[in-house]
């Protein structure tokens, strides 16, 4: 498994949801909300559907249930957004639906979107396993839509020379990083770095 070192240079903010960070989100969902009253024969579907659309972003963050920070690459965000907008546009192309059909379809699209975001974030992390040593990729924070990045350590090294370079790169990274680390990371403080092995570093980070 890859050792994931997450450095997210962002500030705390209200959760907005990953899709909310896409450039077309406001335009698209404004259209969806303003036309929801034309999509169902039953008047009771209108407030239910409106609430689903209004709470889409916050509900997304609640449903992600990730053990890692919600950081998604721009490429994968575009892919998720394209899939969601396509489903939504198809739904809105119909005229008026029978009672309960429209809000149920919105829920289905919402759940599909959550799964797409979860998979996109996890896939980017798992890509680290196919690398050797320290690797960093640019992301967007789903919490507040700011630019961020993820730094990880891949174990896919094939030679002793690669391993030596990877371990040295990890130790150098930790040495540069220690000023940003919580005091709880005593095992990563400068006095301990001289004799720090890859296994020790992994165990230390795993405990915190």
TrEMBL record:
User: Where does the record place a coiled coil?
Assistant: none
- Gene Ontology terms: cellular component: nucleus
| Signal among keywords | yes
- Keywords assigned: Signal
Q: Which InterPro entries match?
A: IZUMO, Izumo_fusion
Query: What does UniProt give as the signal peptide span?
Result: 1-15
Concerning its family, UniProt says: Belongs to the Izumo family.
Protein name, entry field: IZUMO family member 4
Species per Swiss-Prot/TrEMBL record? Piliocolobus tephrosceles (Ugandan red Colobus)
